[in-house]
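I have been asked to look over a protein record a colleague put together. This is what I was given:
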Amino acid sequence: MSRWQELTGGTTGSAYAARFEALARSGKDVHGEAAFCAALAPAGARVLDAGCGTGRVMIRLAELGYDCVGVDLDASMLDVARAEAPHLPFFRADLAAFDPAALGIAADFDVVVAAGNVLPLLTPGTEATVVARLAAALRPGGLLVAGFGLDAAHLPVPPTLTLPQYDACGAAAGLTLVDRFATWDAAPYEGGGYAVSVHRLSP
């Protein structure tokens, strides 16, 4: 069982969406992840939202003209996503067993994004497998973008995945670190409890 399932029971989709709706009403920018990804690839590029949840990032990218696919294991989150954007392709799948071909999806994404602490909330021990699966979904030269917490202040569970460990998973999957930031606003990473990493698949 994933740490997310243990934490939520897979029933928090509506509450999760409501929290971001409240943030948006208060004037907060809730589209930082989408803006970050849009700066990496032109409109029309194919984007896989891995651990898409309620579809907040993917729906915004689709509005900006990107060709998007979303994958998540939490049915309650996907129910919200499908109700919000029934025209977009959302799939229920475990990222540790993600096989684009089995879902009828071409494995030639320009960008794969894993936002919202997807990687630290996986089933423990599956991190390297998931990174390899996501890398395999990229076209040569494609980018894997992941933002996640590294300490208790930025995670709802005790931290387990360090940046060196994540980079090692990436290297094993043919990925090279391109850049690392402290926020989705692209502030420079100088240490700290949250990082947004951009890795590129070898051409």
